[in-house]
Amino acid sequence: MFGSRKLVIGMLHAPALPGSPGNKMDLGGIVERVLEDAGALAEGGIEAFVIENFGDVPFYPGQVPPHTVAFLTALCKEVKRYHTNLPLGVNVLRNDAESALAIAAATGAEFVRVNIHTGARLTDQGVVEGMAHQTLRYRKLLGVDVKIFADVDVKHSAPLAARDLKTEVEELVSRGCADAVIVTGAGTGHQTSFDDLKVVKSAVGEKPVIAGSGVNVSNVAEVFKIADAVIVGTSLKRDGITTNPVDPERVRKFMEAVGHRT
User: Fold this and answer.
1) What is the pTM for the complete model shown?
2) Is the pLDDT confidence value at 69 over 70?
């Protein structure tokens, strides 16, 4: 995925899945919505996707139920069927890395996103602990080359104790064996700090650094001066609202702003 050119990864925010409190659509309708978003992103030039069960609030702090895994697997399979050549990532919210790996293994997805891979964070789900020791062993058990994109100082959370960001990153990579590091702002759609990106970039060695929130048409060129990739979602939605469908015109303008990358 990370060749000579920097990467733009588009978000696929799945509506509330069957069984979750906010569900209003059957699986067929959800598949149609996700494929429409994927099509609009791909036609606009987006080079990879990451799908997550964004509508399933409130999130489980750890393992999700079997039906959530089944529905997400069906969604990923359809996205892969129509967009074979575009890398796909899976994020099972809030922090179910093993289910994400299983879905990726079953559908041919190339990476998973893990919000809390090492350490522990205070979240709206309570204290969530990283399970890198289990995640890496489960990947080995499955025998797949699915990359682990791990957040540091992840959005919608707070540290249990103050720690130096550089140290967090170094441990995430060296002791947590993350394949790439994602840096975010305070919440969905909130701009990622340029200072944080610089600190992370200085600490990761050769691993890619990804700006994971708040990237938009006005700041993406500056973000790409530091980051190796961006994950973009909210700013590509109709009226800039996360739960709305992807707006093709916003995608076009965003990719124009991205321009040439090296």
Assistant:
1) 0.95
2) yes
